[in-house]
Structures are given as structure tokens and as C-alpha cells.
Amino acid sequence: MTDALFDTTVFIDWWRGDTGAISLVDAVKNGRFTASYSSMSIVELWQWDQLDRKEEIEYVALTSRYLEEASLGFEEARLAGTWLRGYGRNQRRELFADALIAATAQLRRETVYSRNDRQLRRFYSDVQPY
């Protein structure tokens, strides 16, 4: 287990030079705390049609060297699905990734760091904006 789970926004903001995201990544690189990422974040990053090779290489280096993969399994999927039941079809599609990321963090007892804290708090309370 790690201390935190980085949402997809951390990766995107880190790549774009956001100081908050850079501070989080630097804290992990310097050993001040440990962090993981959801497999769902990889889906979100790689589906973007403007992902270039340099960005892809940087994400792979970051995830393989400094972060732990928090794989999605039955329990994460079940919990996210249960949470999404109360929403209409369009909202379920919109919130699908957030529910899976929040479920992963909850089951691992990790704080989620995200710029998308309002969406994630629909499902899990231990969310920290940066």
C-alpha cells in the first residue's frame, strides 16, 4: 500500500508544468511519501488522440520508476458499479472513470490527489486537491 493515489489530473497537470502537480511528483521522487495510480488513469491518458511520444515516454518512466500500479479488480468494479446505480445513463458514462478511481483508493485506504476533487467526492471523502 501507498500513502496516496494520483488521479489522472496529476499526470496531465505535471506534464503541463502545474506547480501543485510538480510538487506532488517531486515529493514521491524524493521519498517524502509513496503514491500509486489507478489502471483507469492509464486508459484515460492513452485514449487521448493528442498524446505524443515524448509525453508517453515520460508517463511510462514516472509510473514504472516511482509509482505503484493499483490494478482494477472485481471489488473495485463492484463498488464503483454500486455507486453509479443512482445516476442516469449519461451521468454514469461521465462519472465512470472517477468512480473506478475512487473505489480503488477507498479499498486501498489511500488519499486521492486530484484537481477533480468535487467529482471524486461524490464517491469517496478522502480526496485532496492540489
Number of strands: 5
Topology order in helix (H) and strand (E) letters: EHHEHHEHHEHE
Q: Return residue spans where pLDDT drops below 50 for at least 5 consecutive residues.
A: none
- Main sheet, how many strands, which sense, barrel? 5 strands, parallel
| CA gyration radius, whole angstroms | 14 Å
How many helices? The count is: 7
- Characterize the overall form: globular
- How many angstroms does the end-to-end distance come to? 21 Å
Description:
The protein is of the alpha/beta class and 130 residues long. The protein has a domain at 4-71 and 108-121. The longest helix has 20 residues, at 89-108. It contains 7 helices and 5 strands. Helix 1 (8-16) packs across helix 2 (19-29) and helix 5 crosses helix 6 (89-108). The mean pLDDT is 96.
Short account of what is shown:
Helices cover 58% and strands 12% of the residues. It contains 7 helices and 5 strands, in the order E-H-H-E-H-H-E-H-H-E-H-E. Helix 7 links the parallel strand 4 and strand 5.
Topology (elements, then pairings):
Elements: E1 4-6, H1 8-16, H2 19-29, E2 35-38, H3 39-46, H4 53-65, E3 68-70, H5 74-84, H6 89-108, E4 111-113, H7 117-120, E5 127-128
Parallel strand pairs: 1-2, 1-4, 2-3, 4-5
